[in-house]
Amino acid sequence: MVASVTQATGSAVLCVDLTKKLVSRAGTFDLDVAFSVGAEITVMFGMSGAGKTTVLECIAGLMQPDSERVLLNGTDLTRLPARERRIGYVFQELALFPHLTARENIGYGLRTLPEREKKQRIGEIIESFHIAHASDRKPRAMSGGERQRVALARSLVIQPCMLLLDEPMSALDHGTKAAILRDLREYHTQHRIPVIYVTHALDEVFAIADRVLKIANGKIVAEGKPEEVLSEEREQLIQYLNAAR
Amino acid sequence: MNLVNWQAIWLSAKLASIVALILLAVGVPLAYWIAFTRVRWKFLLEAVVSLPLVLPPTVLGFYLLVAMGSRSPVGRWYDGWSGHSLVFSFQGLIIASVLYSLPFAVQPFAAAFSQVDQRLRDAASLLGASKMETFFRVVAPLSIGGIVTGMVLSFAHTIGEFGVVLMVGGNIPGVTRTISLDIYDKVEDIDYASANHTAILLLLFSFTVLAIIYAVNRRLAARWLPR
């Protein structure tokens, strides 16, 4: 498996090859994936329980796989602990620190920077994600969309080498979702890093994906452009919407 | 006649303050380990820490008396080092009280730590924070209610302890005679008026402590939850 990843390294930026066996009361689950992605927005699409979150957690170093190889521009991240991988990560639950304001949340990853540079970086990202009005609020006093933007800003302000998003928009309405995806796309145009965006929502795939990895039962079953990989699902959705009229 | 023995009150307050501070220093790392470790034998340590909750104080006091007495290695070493005995001394009382009040600090600490969402610790880690930084900037601030509860409970429990103090400390005025022993002495002397005055003070103190704990926890719980 590693050989195929190495071959794919050519123009790719991020190469991942990992296996993980999860044992629970429901049975065993075998994850075995190998893929490579460039500095584009790749959507990992799959139903609940397909293994999407496990893949992200292994890449980020939050979960220990049985075997793993994560190469970023040829650099092996495999043995690095999560805190040294410099990966931006947005959790499904966002995981904003509830006792800190938006500004403090965003600045958390910049503790070691000189105060002036830290302020400048925080100011810039707050402006990029349109959250200046909420910067002194704690998460409990923010709307869902504001919390989402703060979580994105917090993960990007550290200038990560890649961004992993785990179903980040699942709790948002379409209008807010579209606006945030636009901001994310704009950010990505300026900072070309590999982005892996996990979702099972088709609208998000077609709104943001440059490329799709389709995952089912712990395996990558298809990859390519969204309209190629998910043509069947798109047709089903259109039929469903037409029938509902 | 002096109805309240202020010397005993001062001694108890001093003892309880020192014990609460020691338990903060010792109990926090222990509770952190209990809250987050995945080792299989964790339950054994939990049982040891909780033992003083169910053990009769006289049993604990007896074994501490034996362990710290001048015939034990610890007692002999302390005698040689300090020139006086560890049992029937204020220092011995501190050690006994720390062990006796250990679960009253460690359990609230551990319960509070384990309630901090794993995702918050993951997020801190991904933002470059070490475990120590994550503890001081995320886990501890979000566990402040449990930390305050543990501190206050261990302070209050030390103020009111009787059996262990009597066994390990004896009943030496100004050295080991705490407020509970003072009440006991007064009852034995059939001086009910003085005993009553001191007992009322302890009763009010205990009520105030519990009221503070509930008020603090209620306020802190409301602080982080979404509206």
Describe the fold and architecture.
The complex is a heterodimer of chains A (245) and B (227). Chain A is an alpha/beta fold and 245 residues long. Chain A is built from nine helices and ten strands. Helices cover 37% and strands 25% of the residues of chain A. Chain A has a six-stranded mixed β-sheet with strand order 6-7-8-3-9-10, sandwiched between helices. With 227 residues, chain B is mostly helical. Chain B has one domain (15-221): MetI-like (MetI-like fold). In chain B, 79% of the residues lie in helices and 0% in strands. Chain B is built from eleven helices and no strands. In chain B, helix 5 runs antiparallel to helix 9. The model of chain B has no long low-confidence stretch (mean pLDDT 89).
Q: Helices and strands in order, then pairings?
A:
The complex is a heterodimer of chains A (245) and B (227).
Chain A: H1 2-8, E1 14-24, E2 27-37, E3 41-45, H2 52-60, E4 67-72, E5 75-76, E6 87-90, H3 102-107, H4 115-128, H5 144-156, E7 162-166, H6 174-190, E8 195-199, H7 202-208, E9 211-216, E10 219-224, H8 226-229, H9 231-244
Parallel strand pairs in A: 3-8, 3-9, 6-7, 7-8
Antiparallel strand pairs in A: 1-2, 1-4, 4-5, 9-10
Helix pairs in contact in A: 5-6
Chain B: H1 6-36, H2 42-54, H3 57-68, H4 73-82, H5 90-114, H6 118-126, H7 131-142, H8 144-160, H9 163-169, H10 179-188, H11 192-224
